[in-house]
Amino acid sequence: MTAYNAFTQEWMDAWKEKINSSKEYKEIAKEWEGSVSITVNADPSRNLPETVYMFTDYWHGDALEFLICDAAKAQTAKFIMTGDYARWKQVAKKELDPTKALMQGKLKLKGDLTYVVRMVKTINKVVDLLTEVETIFPDGD
Amino acid sequence: MAYNQDLSFVYFGPTKIIFGNGSSTSELDSEVSAMGCSRAVVVTDPGIIKAGLLDKITKSLGGKCVGVFSDVPQDSGLDVIDRAAAFAREKGADIIISVGGGSAIDTAKGMCILLTEGGSLADFEGIQQLTRLQTPHIVIPTTAGTGSEVTWIAVVYDKSKGQKRLIVETYNAPRVAILDPTLTAKLPPLLTASTGMDALTHAVEAISDVDHEPIADALGLHAIRLLNKYLPTCIKNGSDLTARGQVQIAATMAGWAFGNSMVGLVHAMAHSIGAVAHVPHGVANGILLPHCMEFNLPDAEDYYAEIAQAMGVYEKGSTTKQAAETAVKAVFDFSKKIGHPQKLSEFGVTEEDIIKAADMSMSDGAIVCNVRLVEDSSEVLAIYRKAL
């Protein structure tokens, strides 16, 4: 399996491909409409010198735009999720449940919580598919 | 209660507790000064003023009380909080003191955010967005049930959506809670029962939620013991300050428990029927709790068996399943024993209301933490029908 460097366009393309080829995702996410941006706070001590902004867009079971972007583009998303690098790494390695992380303040969410709750299965599936992407993290392993 | 090697949790309980008869007047001024504050706005509701509970409290603050906002309704909303924050800003408040039940406390929590961050509460849609401590907040509960005095969660009505919204911000936990049993001595039996059932619901849901953990479990189970022992006494003799005090402590312990483990289906349904048909929160929780326990039973036997022990109904030699069933029956019986309402229809709820509320419950934040996965709104509707 090809391994990708985390938080690169190639890594995002691989994630998008996983989503679009999942029949299960298509069924679960058939009502999801809208974009989610992910902000990974810089952590120079872990070889992530700059904050990374990612924009992901979804519509009725399809993944659309998946881009490394700038802060301004990230702010346009319907939902904005923010967290430290170490937390996102735990999520990507399936060591941290994103719902629990939100409740405990390990990740932050701006956007309509009621919509997210209704679609929690979709979110969990997107994260599950991310964990299937072979990833090389900035600080190794 | 079984835990496995994957157990991982964060327990957070930063609120200082002061307990004792008369503490709401003897300790308040010192606590305000200790935080370096000198301009307090008190937030309350008209019922508290009418009951004569506020005067002594504001007087104890002397010149530090710069204003009283008393326009808090039963289910406070974003608009109320925006108005209250504007009032506090105009008064130059550096600390908020809430005196009342959940609605006054949650209004104050919203105000604390706006005083620190500015803007309207409608701008803070999301979860855990704050990155610094908010305006200091001292809570003086006048009921024993909400637990909001020690949580960083506020529930406010969003008129634009016709739904209650959860505001979850760890940086917004109250700094101090002053539990003064004398303030609850005149609560009428129905309000005593419904707020007590609210506390029981917090404890039961905290113990059985997907993220339950040993500290919250211990707090929840002891809260159940105290409620089981002292709440009936409070109903029979409201002026028994020993019983009143123990029920206040139980409510606070249950607040810590659910603040960490979260609540579940009962709350999702109570928030929704509250938004749709304005059933008071404690009443809705109290009516729905045993019905939701029945629904959750297949996935909650271990937890409910512990509840049977805490309620003193466990029979030696029972299987876990039998003990869990006994706990559900005990909660039904307890609710009847304390004279709590049994049906939502007693509050004018209709079939049309529960259909709307069942759908709304599926988007309430509490539902994701429920011990049993709720697949769709038809399951919720079936529970509402049993409680109608």
Helix content percent band of chain B:
40-55%
**Assigned CATH superfamily of the largest domain in chain B:** Dehydroquinate synthase-like - alpha domain
CATH structural fold name of the largest domain in chain B: Dehydroquinate synthase-like, alpha domain
Determine Rg of chain A (CA atoms, Å).
14 Å
Give me the CATH architecture of chain A, please: 2-Layer Sandwich
Give your account of this protein's structure.
The complex is a heterodimer of chains A (141) and B (388). In chain A, the strands form two sheets. Chain A has a five-stranded mixed beta sheet with strand order 4-3-2-5-6. In chain A, strands 1-7 form a two-stranded parallel ribbon. Chain A has 141 residues and is α/β, with parallel strands linked by helices. Chain A has one domain: SCP2 sterol-binding domain (Nonspecific Lipid-transfer Protein, Chain A), CATH 3.30.1050.10. In chain A, 38% of the residues lie in helices and 28% in strands. Chain A is globular. Chain A has seven helices and seven strands. Chain A has helices at residues 9-20, 23-28, 71-74, 85-92, 98-103, 113-118, 120-131; strands spanning 4-5, 33-41, 52-59, 62-69, 79-84, 107-110, 135-136. Chain B folds into two domains: 16-184, Rossmann fold; 189-387, Dehydroquinate synthase-like, alpha domain. Chain B is built from 14 helices and nine strands. Chain B has helices at residues 23-26, 28-34, 46-50, 54-60, 78-90, 102-117, 189-208, 214-236, 241-261, 265-277, 281-310, 320-337, 351-361, 377-387, and strands at residues 16-19, 40-43, 65-69, 95-100, 126-127, 137-141, 153-158, 163-168, 176-179. Chain B has a six-stranded parallel beta sheet with strand order 1-9-6-4-2-3, with helices on both faces. In chain B, strands 7-8 form a two-stranded antiparallel ribbon. The radius of gyration of chain B is 20 Å and the shape is globular. The chains are: A alpha/beta (141), B alpha/beta (388). Chain A binds chain B through residues 80, 99-100, 102-105, 107-115, 117-118, 120, and chain B through 10, 125-129, 161, 163, 165-166, 168-170, 211, 262, 362-365, 367-369. Strand 6 (107-110) of chain A pairs antiparallel with strand 5 (126-127) of chain B, so a sheet runs across the interface.
